[in-house]
Design brief:
two-stranded antiparallel ribbon, six-stranded parallel beta sheet, binds farnesyl diphosphate, 8 helices, alpha/beta
Length: about 260
């Protein structure tokens, strides 16, 4: 099936998004930053909905970083309120559409009401299989890596883990994203060319897409354009074009010989 030039059979399995520009969107309109976040929530709904419709399997959203705790109290409070409201209101839709919710980050720092809403939604949606939405809340990539390192070190000290046996899978398996495939595509809105402490280990081979569009204006059309651009990229994973051509040729020959 094709949609706006998009090949729905070659979608990224996992899309991760750094949702940036809510504050600038509001400032440009003489509105409060909180109003920008409110509009940003509408974009979240639109992108989750579109992802589900076209068949994206995993969608990660960087909703609140560990650094965001340093924002003014009222802004943090408002963001927490929006998150809680989102979780409460969207739960029924997640159940209807088979969406599983996961969270990455330091949940202990979240206010009780948000944590309870989060845990309740995660528990309620745990068996849903159509799509997984991963909310990064009080998350930072470095903090994820530090917590993983502490865990492996403790296991080694207790004699349950041979340090020489640590490999990439042992590391991936102890990050908050354990069991989730690495993002194929990382989108950042509002034009900044930074990763801002989002997934660090996980984006080793992700394709990057940066758009100047501010997050509250990032809606279906923009999203489909990002996915279409992704489909133009050739992912080489460190190999040469010629090696990829050979691999492709072999797989075509192998499937031809089977049929
Ligand atoms: C960045 O804009 C955005 C955030 C810090 C928060 C993202 C939150 C939402 C989109 C709303 C609620 C989320 C969910 C999942 C319901 P910014 O404030 O850094 O913008 P600026 O760089 O222009 O100041």
């Amino acid at each position: 099936m094709e949609l706006d030039g998009l090949d729905l059979n070659r979608l990224p399995q996992h899309v991760a998004i750094i949702m940036d520009g809510n504050g600038r969107w509001a400032k440009l309109r003489g509105k409060s930053r909180i109003e920008g976040h409110r509009r940003g929530k509408t974009s979240v709904r639109a992108i989750v909905e579109m992802s589900r419709k076209i068949g994206i399997r995993y969608l990660s959203l960087y909703a609140f970083s560990t650094e965001n705790w340093f924002r003014p109290r009222e802004e943090v409070h408002a963001l927490m309120g929006l998150l809680e409201h989102y979780l409460v209101v969207e739960q029924a839709k997640m159940m209807r559409y088979g969406i599983r919710l996961l969270a990455v980050g330091d949940r202990e720092r979240l206010p009780g009401r948000v944590r309870r809403a989060l845990e309740q939604t995660i528990a309620q949606t745990r068996d849903n299989q159509r799509m997984t939405v991963i909310l990064a809340l009080s998350y930072s990539g470095r903090d994820d890596i530090v917590r993983m390192a502490r865990h492996l070190a403790r296991e080694a000290r207790a004699g349950r883990l041979d340090p020489e046996a640590i490999d990439e899978d042992s590391v991936s398996g102890q990050l908050d994203t354990a069991g989730v495939p690495d993002p194929d595509l990382l989108i950042r809105t509002s034009g900044e060319l930074r990763i801002s402490n989002f997934f660090l280990w996980q984006i080793a081979y992700s394709e990057l897409y940066v758009t100047p569009t501010l997050w509250p204006d990032f809606r279906e059309r923009e999203y489909l354009a990002a996915l279409a651009e992704y489909q133009q990229r050739r992912r080489r994973f460190g190999r040469t074009d010629e090696q990829l051509d050979q691999t492709l040729l072999h797989s075509v020959q192998a499937s031809g010989s089977k049929s």
